[in-house]
Amino acid sequence: MATFINISENNLSVDENQVEGVKKASELVVPALTEKKGAAAAKEFEEKFATLYGDGDKAALLELFLPQLTVLAEYEPAVEEGSEKKPQHFEAFYAVTLSILATAERAVQAKAVEKILPQLIANSTDPTRLRLLMILYNTLEVDHPSRAAVFTAVLDYGNAAGLSSVILPYCSMLGEWLQDWDLNLDQKADIYGKVATMQRSAGSVQKSRATFIALLDLYENEGDATKPADAAVTLICDTLNAPDAMDVSDVLVRKPVQALASTKHKLLLELCTLFRDGNLTMLNDFHKKNGAVFKEHKIDFAVCETKMKMLALSTLAGAATEMPLADVAKALQASEEEAEKWVVMAVNAGILNARVDQLRRVVLVKSSFQRSFGPEEWTKLHSQVGQWIENLEKLQGVFAATRSA
Fold first, then answer.
1. For residue 171, is it within any domain?
2. Fewest C-beta in 10 Å: which of 12, 119, 120, 321?
3. What is the pLDDT of residues 209-264, one digit of tens each?
4. Does the pTM of the predicted model rise above 0.70?
5. Does the residue 213 lie in any domain?
6. How is the beta sheet containing 322-324 ordered, strand by strand?
7. Domain that holds residue 285
């Protein structure tokens, strides 16, 4: 921490022993207390400060200073004639208070943070409060137990004040920060949930899905898998609504997602499973029987239908190198002309590497998106790997024979 801290227009500074800065900060309180609570309250503050000034009792000094943050936050100091800027008494006093807090014992810091946070977040219309919260966060040491509480307040305040764009870039460090904080499982999940919700509100749905998955992963090997049910539901809904989220296997393998099978959300889980194991007919049947699921969770059926058609194409393409357009049309429940358009869309989306042979009315497939890896797919892959190893061993034998010759 710097020896000197320049504070706003008041040009306050804190010397190495904090004596002069603390004295000047106390002088800011007196007119504010006089206006808000009367001369008697101001006099009482001055008398208490006089007994503490310079004696080094940071705990007692913080106990005296912290309640004054609210007083100064509500105080409108007079603007000097000719000045275009309003004096920033609150920020000046806050900076000095933090300079005292920074050199206090950890137990004293923790108690002070508990009192500071409610005062800072009380006004969600003042964007400067977010900066003050961040300063408080940086004032504490990396492994300080109160850092998590301050970061949580940063998230809550940023969300309430509509300042998510300022905070989200810092959230990329979340995994590293959580390693420094001694938090239990639910506390970690709460922070992940707040970050994911903020990302989602800011339109970063892909990032929010990744954060929700990180949240669910906390409960994979410990804890109650039914606890993060809300996060599991949101993850499924966002995955189904995302046009580019074709593979649902990374969602379905999570224990909290599978735990929905025994809850009121079991139909939502069933819908998600269709995108791994089902087809277009099954999706349409589900929609007819359970249209309320789409309405309740705001799931766009048109997006789901488009994705299922793409998946139908990938399934067909995975079974053969040539697909008659008639078969494609049947799988998509469309005409051959429409089927041809869907093939083009699938190629543009990266689902297929293929082209349409107009003369023969077939789709020539080079490769396709692998929809899922079930037992059959793993068996096939294992067989291919075995063949590759066998071929490699044969080549090694040939090279060895060549060298010896």
1. no
2. 321
3. 999 999 999 998 888 999 999 999 999 999 999 998 989 999 999 999 999 999 99
4. yes
5. yes
6. 322-324, 362-368, 352-357
7. 200-299
